[in-house]
What we know:
Elements: H1 3-11, E1 12-23, E2 26-37, E3 41-45, H2 52-59, E4 67-72, E5 75-77, H3 82-87, E6 90-93, H4 105-109, E7 116-117, E8 121-122, H5 124-137, H6 153-165, E9 171-175, H7 183-198, E10 202-206, H8 210-216, E11 219-224, E12 227-233, H9 239-247, E13 265-275, E14 281-291, E15 295-299, H10 306-314, E16 321-326, E17 329-330, H11 336-342, E18 344-347, H12 351-355, H13 362-367, E19 375-376, E20 379-380, H14 382-395, H15 412-424, E21 430-434, H16 442-457, E22 461-466, H17 469-475, E23 478-483, E24 486-492, H18 498-505
Parallel strand pairs: 3-10, 3-11, 6-9, 9-10, 15-22, 15-23, 18-21, 21-22
Antiparallel strand pairs: 1-2, 1-4, 4-5, 7-8, 11-12, 13-14, 13-16, 16-17, 19-20, 23-24
Amino acid sequence: xxxxxxxxxxxxxxxxxxxxxxxxxxxxxxxxxxxxxxxxxxxxxxxxxxxxxxxxxxxxxxxxxxxxxxxxxxxxxxxxxxxxxxxxxxxxxxxxxxxxxxxxxxxxxxxxxxxxxxxxxxxxxxxxxxxxxxxxxxxxxxxxxxxxxxxxxxxxxxxxxxxxxxxxxxxxxxxxxxxxxxxxxxxxxxxxxxxxxxxxxxxxxxxxxxxxxxxxxxxxxxxxxxxxxxxxxxxxxxxxxxxxxxxxxxxxxxxxxxxxxxxxxxxxxxxxxxxxxxxxxxxxxxxxxxxxxxxxxxxxxxxxxxxxxxxxxxxxxxxxxxxxxxxxxxxxxxxxxxxxxxxxxxxxxxxxxxxxxxxxxxxxxxxxxxxxxxxxxxxxxxxxxxxxxxxxxxxxxxxxxxxxxxxxxxxxxxxxxxxxxxxxxxxxxxxxxxxxxxxxxxxxxxxxxxxxxxxxxxxxxxxxxxxxxxxxxxxxxxxxxxxxxxxxxxxxxxxxxxxxxxxxxxxxxxx
Length: 511
């Protein structure tokens, strides 16, 4: 063994050897080897369903391997639970947020390892002070006593990161930690990761954002279909190499089109306002037209009001004021079910809590919002329903052995496809997608964007919200920028530049 190879071997703190994991009807991992080096960012890459999250859950004690062994400091170990792994200094930030919405921020952070006074009661004051320090470190002004259920997804992601940092970890596993964060928040997280590396902490990092992997990673391991595909030093590879190892070839980008100029607006939003429970307006006298066959991207920073606008359009905010007309029909005042029947469909940002019913199968989740389409008299036409489910699974390339599989058995990206499929089965005229690329790999993302373009060509109005500049510029026919609940910019694809979009997104922020 060369001196360099020996030095790398000596740096390995945790090692998976020939690890396999089988579930009923499927094998998630096939004899995978994976080495985690201390003081380094160890990137794990692969398509949705490649086995990344399964391997991470095994390393963190959330799952037990069906075969293979784990070695920590060159000694074989077994983890019976997440708490068991935590006792060895292993922490994890799960892809799907693992928080209790009815508890406060501080209570979530110290759940399972509270500070106790005199062995009798929990020291809430100490928890609050430590939570404030963690929030200062992450540059967020989130109060310790705020109920987690009152926070937006990006803020909950920050709490999840703080929860991991509160423990004295030797190995920190991060599964899609930036999926809901803005560019500024990502920079803050990367600074914290740099501090952890300098302290000798090993980071295992999963993300579908290839640019950030190249920026932060030290080593990369690629999985494909549950098998080890490649390992390399990050400095020796580039993005095309990463994509080719993941999917075999660079996926074709979504091809755009320019909607007809003479197309009358399908959606007309006039003077829509929604009060913020904490004061001010989440949506402030907003007016906007969207044409049939047009793909409109909503871009803005955290708190800009994009998600709240979508909630108003689908009817989830009954206190909203103003007019919402779809195809000339006024929707204001109608409940969610009536708006779905009228042709509005929403793919929410939080697929786990708002988009899926966890205990139901893939097929049942897909048709849950469109059962009325399959009625024959008072009963369901099971054959037509099954055919629609099969067609949707095929068209969206959902990786599942059977529609009867419980939806929680799918990877995060495939769950996202199920939520999108559920929306499409309602046969909408207006499709709203809130962060549709969140947690989806490069190949799946290309498929989703191609689907959006195909739907626009068929005459749908498509609106999607994203915090990814490159994403919105690549896919949208028109980019509407929001800040403080208002439209601060409206650009055609030809007019849009990153500088103009960022400037519009920051209008009024300093004030």
